[in-house]
Amino acid sequence: MTATHNFLSTLTGVFASPVAENPTGVMVEAAYRHHGVAARYVNCDVAPENLEAAVRGAVAMGWVGFNCSLPHKVAVMAFLDEIAESAALIGAVNCVVVREGRLVGENTDGQGFLASLRTTVDPRSQVALVLGAGGAARAIAVELALAGARKIVIANRSPQRAADLARHVKERTPADAAAIDWAGTLTVPDDAGIVINATSIGLFPHVDERPDLDYGSLGPATAVADVIPNPPHTAFLRAAEARGCATIDGLGMLVNQAVIGIRLWTGVDADTHVMRAALDELFA
Ligand code: NDP
């Protein structure tokens, strides 16, 4: 009697450089194992001059999709057939889906943040204060606006970047938007129901740093979120908790952007608990 075997893996992964410390594969492969999906997630160190060849190679090898991280999130757009609406508005792609040889670019950073935020607060009709105007802030501001937030208020160390992002959101989405000055200690606007640290302040090893806010101006009804995944329990979130605020950490964003990627690539709705546990073990 002969048994039939299938040794062919579904292939996914991430193209970035450097990429050795990117932990996404640990939680994605934990989800694949948990759900019995015969797929792999491979970290690939791809230099900028090899990006096009890497993308063509992935298609040639039948990959179902891949993430792009720094420095490829903008450059990869030139090699795709289609860009999803929010990714086009954000101006960056971090997730590519290969469907029948066609390459579709998505941005799952902001969507992952929104999925994590929604476990605690509904962004519809809310005023959100976004700290930062880099890639993460841009993805979050656009997705909040598309999700029905009433107004996005942006504060950034470099004021011109805050003004540019606020103008972009106001002109290109249904939400209102404004930039506010962040010279010295920032007072949270009275009407802000959601406050988000989308700067890199607090990222390891700068674990004691937190955005320069008047934390006394944070009301207990405000939901406070951080993008920093390492360490997840930041000084910013601890200060918000001390004010009685509900908090959402950056691991939730990391897990949920991967859940969206897995769904787009394989159709499987991955268990967030399994993925979070894999990361918790890694960062423990
Ligand atoms: P960028 O470099 O594009 O932007 C960094 C932002 O932080 C800018 O607004 C910058 O201000 C601000 N900033 C940095 N240092 C300081 C400081 N000392 N004081 C005030 N502002 C500061 O980075 P990204 O937007 O791509 O990433 C930001 C953070 O988000 C990173 O720490 C990253 O780990 C995290 N992230 C988390 C994800 C998750 O899934 N949890 C996903 C993606 C990102 P300025 O414009 O003045 O330079």
Topology, pairings included?
Elements: E1 10-16, H1 24-34, E2 39-45, H2 51-60, E3 65-68, E4 82-83, H3 85-90, E5 95-99, E6 102-106, H4 108-117, E7 127-131, H5 135-146, E8 151-155, H6 159-172, E9 176-180, E10 192-197, E11 223-226, H7 235-242, E12 246-248, H8 250-266, H9 272-283
Parallel strand pairs: 1-2, 1-3, 4-6, 7-8, 7-10, 8-9, 10-11, 11-12
Antiparallel strand pairs: 3-5, 5-6
Helix pairs in contact: 1-9, 4-5, 4-8, 8-9
The protein binds NADPH dihydro-nicotinamide-adenine-dinucleotide phosphate (NDP).
Describe this entry's structure for a reader.
It is a single chain. With 284 residues, the protein is α/β, with parallel strands linked by helices. 35% of the residues lie in helices and 20% in strands. The protein has a 6-stranded mixed beta sheet with strand order 2-1-3-5-6-4, sandwiched between helices. It is globular, with a radius of gyration of 19 Å. The structure holds NADPH dihydro-nicotinamide-adenine-dinucleotide phosphate. NADPH dihydro-nicotinamide-adenine-dinucleotide phosphate (NDP) binds at residues 109, 132-137, 156-158, 161, 199-201, 203, 227-229, 250, 253-254, 257. Residues 109, 132-137, 156-158, 161, 199-201, 203, 227-229, 250, 253-254, 257 line the site of NADPH dihydro-nicotinamide-adenine-dinucleotide phosphate.
Keywords:
284 residues; alpha/beta; globular; binds NADPH dihydro-nicotinamide-adenine-dinucleotide phosphate
